[in-house]
Write a structure and sequence with these properties.
Elements (H helix, E strand, L loop, with lengths): L8 E4 L2 H12 L2 E7 L5 E7 L5 E6 L7 H7 L1 H6 L9 E4 L3 H10 L3 E9 L2 E7 L5 E6 L1
Parallel strand pairs: 1-4, 5-8
Antiparallel strand pairs: 2-3, 3-4, 6-7, 7-8
């Protein structure tokens, strides 16, 4: 497994497509997948370039990810109108600028361009289902 003490677990409407996109846009690598009898993803683990892990799965058809929720709910649209990471995942990378270009070129919704902050160099981005990510370089 990993020495990581906290591992984010995200739910996607289409975890297989999300994993493919996360690999392309963020450089994550799939390390484990458990399929359900109906073919949906029951559990999927990915490794970040720095060795961190995330886990994901598909929920019931009633689940609505952040992007879909915002399409159907005025309150969600308002709280997602800011470019900040709300209920998101922070990932350390070696080169924020290169990572940003990769994500942008893969069609990620960029929430903020790379900038230097009190946390180092950062940028914010949404994935295909609206989950928010903060990538940082110390």
């Amino acid at each position: 497994m990993t020495d990581q003490q906290v591992i984010p677990y995200l739910t996607y409407q289409d975890a297989a497509a999300a994993a493919e996109w996360l690999a392309k846009a963020f450089g994550f690598e799939e390390v484990n997948r458990v399929a359900m009898p109906d073919g949906k993803v029951g559990h999927l683990e990915m490794r970040t370039a720095g060795g961190g892990r995330i886990m994901m799965a598909e929920a019931t058809p009633d689940y609505h990810g952040p992007r879909r929720h915002a399409e159907e709910c005025e309150a969600a649209r308002r709280w997602l109108s800011v470019p900040y990471v709300i209920d998101g995942v922070l990932v350390h990378v070696d080169d924020v600028d290169a990572h940003y270009r990769r994500a942008r070129d893969a069609g990620a919704r960029i929430l903020s361009e790379p900038e230097t902050s009190g946390y180092g160099k950062v940028y914010r981005v949404e994935d295909t289902e609206g989950h928010r990510w903060l990538f940082t370089q110390a």
